[in-house]
Design goal:
Length: 79
């Protein structure tokens, strides 16, 4: 059996790959929406303005890197 090659980080960051991943994995997409919108509020509550800025960056990195990391863990990112 021939395995498909794992995409590089730069290939997995394309909008097409990210869209395909989130369309195929709806529960992960919903979790990322919740994280992206709620994490900045948690950052403000816990650490103030600096925490809000840090949590916005963390949630943005998470949104872009989740398809790549899940692919490395065995989830398919494209049909």
């Amino acid at each position: 059996m021939i395995d498909k090659p794992i995409l590089s980080l730069s290939e997995s960051l394309t909008p097409e790959r990210r869209t395909a991943f989130y369309e195929r994995h709806k529960p992960i997409a919903v979790a990322m929406i919740v994280i992206v919108f709620l994490l900045p509020f948690v950052g403000v509550f816990v650490y103030g303005l600096l925490g809000a800025a840090a949590s916005v960056m963390v949630s943005a990195f998470g949104y872009y890197l989740t398809p790549y990391l899940m692919q490395r863990l065995g989830f398919r990112a494209s049909p």
